[in-house]
Specification:
Rossmann fold, 38% helix
């Protein structure tokens, strides 16, 4: 019997902020998921090495998740101690949860570049891709991604619960113009990033002196 679907959101989370959390909460509520797992990367394959240690980033994600029922933290990629490939994570989760639909949340920019990901053609064997995008925005897909979307796209959210993997669902969701880079730069310049990230996370940054923010 197919179980209630769960959401997955991976990221460096250096630091985690409202721009990560709002889509996760919207996904949780609008798709009626049992939970959304926040999965911090150890070393992201397509980004620079994080400024903060895995321990600090995990602590900040745990603080953020504690503020919202339904958000939970999955530490598996940090425990691998090697580059974080989404395919490896999805394979592990599918082995653990064979009857549970997995909804992997990504932005439209990530979908446009999906054919640069490790094992990208296998991702839909293990999960659905739920793609958050700005209403009215027309993406510029290359031939690989156009073919993938044509073969797997659905506009029926209920389809994500009827099968455990294999669908691409475009998720209308106004995206907030907030980035971890902006927050780090804000801190380094001595400015206040309040309201861009949860207050417990901001307090943690202050307490630990992360991103060169002076301890108050």
């Amino acid at each position: 019997m197919i179980q209630k679907a769960i959401g997955l959101l991976g990221g460096t989370f250096d630091p985690i902020h409202v721009g990560h959390l709002r889509p996760a909460i919207a996904l949780l509520e609008r798709l009626n998921l049992s939970e959304v797992r926040l999965i911090p990367n150890y070393i992201p394959p397509h980004k620079a090495t994080p400024d903060s240690s895995p321990e600090h980033r995990l602590a900040m994600v745990q603080l953020a998740a504690s503020q919202t029922t339904g958000l939970v933290v999955d530490e598996r990629e940090l425990k691998r101690d090697r580059p974080s490939y989404t395919l490896d994570t999805l394979k592990e989760l599918r082995a653990e949860l064979p009857d549970t639909p997995l909804c992997f949340l990504m932005g439209m920019d990530s979908l446009c570049q999906l054919d640069q990901w490790h094992g990208w053609q296998q991702l839909l064997d293990y999960a659905h891709l739920v793609v958050s995008h700005r209403p009215g925005w027309q993406p510029d897909f290359n031939a690989n991604i156009s073919a993938l979307v044509k073969a797997h796209a659905t506009s029926d959210a209920k389809q994500l619960s009827r099968q455990v993997s294999g669908c691409i669902y475009l998720f209308d969701n106004p995206q907030l113009d907030i980035s971890s880079t902006h927050i780090r730069n804000c801190v380094k310049e001595g400015n206040n990033p309040q309201y861009l990230l949860p207050e417990p996370v901001l307090n943690y940054i202050r307490d630990k002196g992360l991103y060169q923010l002076p301890v108050l």
